[in-house]
Write a structure and sequence with these properties.
With about 300 residues, this protein is α+β, with helices and mostly antiparallel strands. The chain is built from 9 helices and 13 strands. The protein has 2 domains: about 150 residues, no CATH class; about 120 residues, no CATH class. The strands form 3 sheets. Strands 1-2-3-6-4-5 form a 6-stranded antiparallel β-sheet. Strands 7-8-9-13 form a 4-stranded antiparallel β-sheet, with helices on one face. Helix 3 crosses helix 4. The longest helix is centred in the middle third of the chain and has 18 residues. The two termini are about 25 Å apart. The relative contact order is 0.10. About 5% of the residues have low confidence.
């Protein structure tokens, strides 16, 4: 079970969508979050004068989902200013520094390499990075410290709306508060000669590795919901889906934002995931949720 923690969010300019300084209680990680338009005003912040790692996020060129860039700077400010002039996609930035300025160049290179590796493994958001750096050599003590710092960062990012580094949780970890049983049982989605299994989690709807999806989508989905066709192709391009005979197969557990999106991409047609996903007894996810709400 994850350990509860508290975050302190300081809205520095009084605008909830403007500059925010985020700190985790009793931890050294501090995040600076701001929209791109505010860089000229916030670049003098002391946090941006420190050594750290940063994320740039914004819409993909095709408009379907987000794009992510992971970088490091010693200090951060010149690197973000360079991207302000040269990278068009990003609309917001998140910089991470250590309270007291304890990070050095090797530390942030380690954090950058780890974050890129995590994003590539999760395959939830495509990377704008052209290079995938190796981890630098750190002392045993520094490496241990940076793993703790990274863990604190990864705990803060979902609260800030960034899920790019999250792997699908194991079904054994998706439990009730009383630790007695899964939130929902394993569910199944079948049709057109394929079947997939999955379950609901706090991150979204998880489709399990080994699940199968149809190889082709119906024409109406291509015409009326082209974004869904693009998302399927993204899964093929990233290796989450591979050809398996006359169907496609999931190579890893993968988190979708909803059971409906999962069902649509599996069946290749528009459908309602809350009625299409069923447990072993044939009860739909909708029925299970209604029963849970009324208990």
């Amino acid at each position: 079970m994850s350990t509860p923690f508290s975050l302190r969010i300081f809205v520095a300019d009084g605008d909830p969508d403007g500059l925010r300084i985020v700190e985790r209680f009793n931890a050294s990680a501090r995040a600076v979050v701001f929209p791109r338009a505010l860089l000229p005003q916030v670049k003098t912040r002391p946090e941006l004068q420190q050594t750290g790692v940063y994320l740039l996020l914004g819409p993909r060129p095709d408009g379907e989902g987000d794009l992510l860039y992971v970088g490091e700077g010693d200090p951060i400010r010149p690197r973000i200013e360079s991207h302000y002039a040269q990278k068009d996609f990003w609309t917001r930035a998140i910089g991470f520094v250590a309270v007291g300025g304890m990070l050095n160049k090797a530390h942030v290179q380690f954090l950058e390499a780890r974050l890129i590796a995590l994003a590539r493994a999760a395959k939830r958001v495509p990377l704008d990075n052209g290079n995938f750096p190796n981890e630098p050599t750190l002392s045993e003590a520094d490496r241990a410290d940076m793993l703790v710092f990274l863990d604190h960062m990864l705990g803060m990012l979902p609260v800030l709306g960034v899920h790019a580094f999250e792997l699908a949780p194991s079904v054994s970890t998706v439990i009730r508060a009383d630790a007695a049983a899964p939130v929902t049982p394993l569910l199944y989605c079948a049709g057109k000669g394929v079947e997939a299994s999955g379950y609901e989690a706090s991150q979204g709807f998880v489709v399990k590795a080994g699940s199968r999806a149809v190889a082709e989508v119906v024409l109406s989905l291509q015409q009326n919901w082209p974004a869904r066709t693009t998302q399927r192709q993204d899964l093929l391009n990233s290796g989450v889906l591979v050809t398996d005979g006359d169907a496609l197969r999931f190579t890893q557990d993968f988190v979708f934002t909803s059971p409906t999106l999962a069902a649509v991409l599996i069946l290749g047609r528009h459908t309602n995931g809350r009625t299409k996903w069923k447990d072993a007894q044939g009860r739909t996810l909708k029925e299970l949720q209604e029963a849970e709400a009324g208990s």
